[in-house]
Amino acid sequence: MASIDVALATISFKRKIAYKTTWLFSVLFGGWSLLAGLAVWSNLIGDGELGGYDWQSMKAYLIIGFLTSTLAWAGADWEMANRILDGLVAVDLTKPIDFQRARAAEYIGGMAASVPAAVLGTVAAVLIFRPAPPASPLAAALTVLSLLFIFPLAFGINYLSVLACFVTQRYLGIQWARDCFLAFFSGMMVPIALMPVWLQGVAWSLPFVHFTTTPASIYLGRVDALGGLGLIAAEAVWALGLWLGGRLIWNQLVKKVTVHGG
Amino acid sequence: MADTSTPGRSLTARHVGGVYGRSLVAQIRAITEYPADFWVMASAGVMWNVLQLAFLTVLFAAVPDVAGWDYHEMVMLAGLLSVAAGSTALLCDGVWSTGGMILKGEIDYRITRPAPVVVQVATTHIGMQGFGEVGFGLVMVVFGWIGAGLGLAAVPVGILGILCAIVIEGALITVFCAVNFWIKGPMSPFAFMLIDLQNSAMNLPLGLFPAGVRIVTMFVVPVAFVNFVPVAVLTGHLSAWWLIGTPLAAVASVLAAVGIYRLGLRSYDSSGH
């Protein structure tokens, strides 16, 4: 990693925590979804089970979802979008820095700013709600590894959605549509196991599933060590595919940029 | 620093309405210049609702009811929330820019113009995802309405519920965006929190949640009156008396929005001071 990447990531990190109150509240309120999820699934599961999840494992599932969503939604996607919407991208084209790589550094820097709060929130949730423990020490280690891939995956998905700003005037709608896709197909809204088989097929063929279902399945032992490694390999392939896809689409969309009508 | 009104000139409702209407029409004209933008955003709004419907369909394939509510009743609940949120995007999406305008000092210019600042800010943009959200949201309401066995006699109550839902939603988002006057930042985390709270909890029966949540959502931040109370009254989960609270909540929300925005403008000190 070049020093320029570290510098851009550091700037993004500092920018994220510059407005401390805003930053603190945005992280704190992420816990609301977790509490709502716990209330709903506690009522639905009771003493039984749904989709192979009993109450203890559902608590673990929801807490993993809280951790991954806090990380996934903490990046600097608005900053990326505004560069395109405001036309700053035209200036970026004159700089001797690769646009995608620079934005990746900034995005990861922004995500890193949320790590301490996300970890603290998760530890607090574990201590309060006492979810099921990991299936084995190996499962715990593989879960951590699978969580690390959320960084490149989140950037890849966000970068692709931000590129849509070349053809739109506003980012908010794109952001909400993407977040909804992520919430549904990751299994945050409803576990993939409850979906009909064809929809499960759709979910597993998309990258979103690796944000909640993959780490939760590894953690709870719903897949064995080999299966876990397979899922992590799939995450790696998606991270690479999204990176290359982003480059391909950028090359097409950047032709839309006009400077002073020229 | 400033008030929402301009000294020496009374702002009649007609004048304010005229400014609002003209500003919104100008935005609609701008939309027609960017058809691709319109279709991308409207599709995003539809997609949001399709996935909400998919969530409920998947959930109800596994469980017969959620806290006594059946599938069609919950589709109505989600549909009404979507209509309210989408209408807000169409009618006052600009309030989301309040935080950014405060940071950049862009409120200065608007204070000097003879129209309420909140109206000028609210009409700086139209959230085109709102077209999709309102359209598919209404489809969900009608689908749930028919499925829940509600007849034409309940239509006036439904219309009242929809109108109040739109007013409450828009006013509450304005209130939470106005927090940026005191807690500076380019984003509006409090307004996002409101949306997050609604998407997490208000698509579900309130009976699932502890009493504290019910009290807050009904009497402190009255989001329950956006969709839960009207649908609960229509489907018989709450007594008809609760319906009185819906227009009251609408009036209270509007007063809060105007008052808090006004207070915010008084403490506004432009950028860099």
UniProtKB/TrEMBL annotation, chain A:
The keyword Manganese does not apply. Pfam families: ABC2_membrane_6. The chain crosses the membrane at residues 23-46, 58-76, 107-129, 141-168, 180-206, 226-246. The keyword Transmembrane helix applies. Keywords: Membrane, Transmembrane, Transmembrane helix. This is ABC-2 type transport system permease protein. It comes from Glycomyces harbinensis.
UniProtKB/TrEMBL annotation, chain B:
Signal peptide: none annotated. Keywords: Membrane, Transmembrane, Transmembrane helix. InterPro entries: ABC-2_transporter-like. It comes from the Bacteria. The keyword Transmembrane applies. PANTHER family: INTEGRAL MEMBRANE TRANSPORT PROTEIN, SLR0610 PROTEIN-RELATED. This is ABC-type uncharacterized transport system, permease component. It comes from Glycomyces harbinensis.
